[in-house]
C-alpha cells in the first residue's frame, strides 16, 4: 500500500475498531474484518478500481 493511501485510510481503519467496541459495549456481538484482505482492486495507487467479481468471491469465503 502506498504511504499516502495508507495515511488516508487510517481513519477508516480506526473507526472499525471504535465501532466494534461501541457495539460490544451495548451487548451486540461484533467482529471486524480488514477490508484489504477482502476488497480486490486493480492496484492503481490513489485511483484504484474495485474488481467486483473477485471481491464478491472473497466475501463469500468469510
Entry summary:
By secondary structure, the chain is an all-alpha fold. It is built from two helices and no strands. The protein has one domain.
Secondary-structure map:
Layout: H1 3-25, H2 52-60
What do you see in this structure?
This protein is flat. With 62 residues, the chain is mainly alpha-helical. The chain has one domain. Helices cover 52% and strands 0% of the residues. The protein is built from 2 helices and no strands. It has helices spanning 3-25, 52-60.
Helix segment count? 2
**SSE string, helices as H and strands as E:** HH
Strand fraction band?
under 5%
Radius of gyration: 14 Å
Percentage of residues in helical conformation: 40-55%
Mean pLDDT: 90
Shape: flat
Name a few traits of the molecule.
62 residues
